[in-house]
Structure formats: C-alpha cells, structure tokens
From TrEMBL:
GO CC terms in record: cytosol
Upper lineage: Bacteria, Pseudomonadati, Pseudomonadota, Gammaproteobacteria, Salinisphaerales
Name of the protein in question: Rhamnulokinase
Family assignment from sequence similarity: Belongs to the FGGY kinase family.
Leader sequence residues: none
Pfam families: FGGY_C (PF02782), FGGY_N (PF00370)
Domain Carbohydrate kinase FGGY C-terminal: start-end pairs: 265-458
Any single biological process term in GO: glycerol metabolic process
SUPFAM superfamilies in the cross-refs: Actin-like ATPase domain
Amino acid sequence: MSHIKHSTETTASAPTHCLAFDFGAGSGRAMLGRLDADGLALEEVHRFETATVVDDGQLCWDLDALQRELEAGLRAAQARGPLDAIGIDSWGVDFGLLDAEGQVLAPPLHYRNGHGSRGVARGVLSLEAMHRRTGAQPLELNTVFQLIELAARRPERLAAADRLLLMADLLAAHLTGRPGHEYTLATTSGLFDTVRGDWHYELIDELGLPRRLFRPVLAPGEVWGTLRPALRGGDGRATPVVAVGAHDTASAVAGLDLAPDEAFLILGSWSLLGVETSTPTRDTHTLVHRFGNEGGVCGTHRLITNINGLYLIQTLRDAWRRRHGECPTFSEITAAAQAARSTGLPASVRIDPTDHRFFAPEDMMAAIDDFLNEHGGPRPAALGEYALAVYRGLADQIAAGVTTLEQVFGRRIEAIHVSGGGSQDGILCECISEAAGKPLRHGVVEASAYGNVLMQLIGLGAIPDLRAARALLGGSRLRQKA
C-alpha cells in the first residue's frame, strides 16, 4: 500500500486539512477535517440533496448533478485554504458503465428501481448461490443482480462498456480523470470474493459478464490520483485523492471507537447492524439469517445485515404532505410519535420493515394501512401513530438482529454503538434499546465523514493505524457551517 508523504507545507507540527465527501442516498455533504495539536475537528462546508432522474423509464441517479455538487463542495473547501487530501465515500451496489473514452453510457440506475429483484427472478443466479460463493449479503439489490437484468434488457450497453464503476468510484474518477475500483465498495457487489480478496472472475465468466469491467482494486489508504488541473484551486495544488473506505458503511464503522463487545448500528436511510471482525464469516447461518460480509479498512471485515431505515419516515412524510398539504419536520414527526406512544397505542400497531410493501412504496400511509389490515392491527388515525408503527417495526428488526448475533454467531453484545442521523432520533433510540434490552452508546453522528478523514490521515502518514485514528475520536469536535 502506497502512502503519501508529508510535504514541507504539511509537517507533523502543522495542521493537516482533509476534505471528506460523504454521499448518502438521501443527501450528501462535504466535510473539511483539520488535524492539529488540539485534535481533530470537522466542519461542514457544503450540503445537498442527492438528485435522481428518470431515464429510459427507469429511476436513476442524476450523475451530472452529483458531479456539480462535488465540484461545489471542492470550491467551498479550497476557498478556506490549501487541501492536503480528498476522499469520497458513497452508498454501495449502484454503478455506472464507462466506454473506452471514459464517458458514462447512461445515468446509474437507482437500487430502488426494482431491476435487481427482476434480475433475481430471471433465475440465472440465486441469492443462495451468490452468498455461498462470495460471502456478500443475500440482497436482491446487489450489483450482480442489477447486471443480470441489464444484460437481458440492454445487452448493447454492456457490449459497449469498457469498465464498471460504483458510485464513489465514479466520483473519484471525475476528480482525478483516473477510473478505478475501491475495495470496500467492491465487496457490496456480490461479485467479489471476500475470502480471497479479489473479484470472483469464475462467477463473472459463468454469468457472461465481460472481465474487462472489473479491474484490480485499491485498498483504503492508497493514493487514487491527484486533482485534474481544471479542478485545482488558485494555488494550482495537485491535491491527492486518497482511496478511503469508499463504501459509506466502511467509513462509518472506521469512525466509531468500537469496543470488542459492541455491535455497531448506523441509522440512516438504511439501518445497518453488525460487528467488526478480523476474518469473513460464511456458513449456513449467515445465509439463513441474511447476514453477509463486507470489507472494512485496515484489514477489518464486517458481519452485517441491512434493515430498512429512516427512508420509511421520509416516505411517510411525503405521503402525509400529498394528502394533507403540509410538510412536517422530522422533529415534529418524532414528537407526534412520542405523543402517540404516551397514549398507550396498541402494541399491534407496528409494521414489518422487511415486507415487500415497504421497499419502494408509492404511498407509505396506504402501505401501512394495507399491512395492518392484513395482520389484524388497528388502522392509525394520526401522523404520530403511523410514525410509531414504523419505529416499532424498525426496533423489532434491529433487536432480532442483535439476538442473532448473540445466539447464532456467538458474539457477546453488551451495548449497541449507534451513529448516523437517526442516532439523534430520541424515540427511535428508545424503542431500539427497549426491544433489544441493550444500552445504546452514541458515537459521532457524522461517523462516515470522520472515518473518511481518518483514512486520509492514515494514507498521508499523519496517523500510523486505525487504533491511533480512533483514539482521536474522543476529543473530536464538529463545527456546522454558519
């Protein structure tokens, strides 16, 4: 693994400035990290919504808009002074295809578009076979199932493609002009062998996918490239772009000072529950209980499961706005849920977040009504009751996951270490702690951004390893943009 050495402008005694781009499925942010004698500080310099677009009748990510926001965040950071490094993390599984000239052939498809489940339904590869061979989570939205559907629906697009890049890879290529694959992101694809640590080329061949799409991967901490001349600041500095834990979950877990007996829980659009491990876990238990393996930073792995998350509250708010012409804030929704809870709303008013109705509902309120009607629960009468049904369901699924970690995988869980935007949601955290019977320990909210910056600092040689990096988190501080 190559590391960037400090220049004369960035000595051990001088501050080190790292720009972390954290692209989430709902929103993104540019966070400027500063390491000095006082510790590590993080400042938000740019925040934006993650834009989507409809192309060819399919729900896609608006890559042009994402690249514009990337450049806006870069300019905002450069205006504050020279940068020593840049890193990018994003959600996993989604990708873009590039031709031989490096041009993106079409907007990247959104994982909630449904094409992944259509890929599974084609029967070319089962969830079980994919998990058995790669160790990845058995999820219909995995890259491999998206590709199976694309190969059937638009074979000419695959034929024209020279390389496949996942989302953070696409954005890093935009900054540097150099296409590449980052390791932690690759492990979300369902085409990467987490035991061997390389693409599963035998599976790729069996599926008839071109090998040229999948090139060697970069490890977190390696240098991706430097800023293209057109994107350099007024000082002309060729700032290095460092491969961080490009999967946002990898960065988030890197940004938590986890104890050995803690599970991590990242509460965002998804609820991501798991434990950090030194080796992958792949057996019949992982398949049955829908756990899988993802690569982490500095030789770590994650035994993890995906549970639907605050996306459900976001879609509930959208449904309420369409019906009632008012758009409550998230704090108003949580307050309404707390009020409904205090009235003793029947315990049967709860959903199962794994039910197919809640993957991409057109009307979340109608989906909840339909679910409760089918399962004999009373229909909610107010916004808080709908929200509480969601919170209870999420807490139930998280608690079941904790039980699985303990009873099936033999992991002692003394506490749940939570982070992400949902860690600030008081009623959600109360419901989780009660359902799981475990205390919650709150890490930094912006864990992905912190983990992103920490890996840049390791790549720069400013910090020796992950243990030393996490030791900085106790004194870290977050400054919001004015």
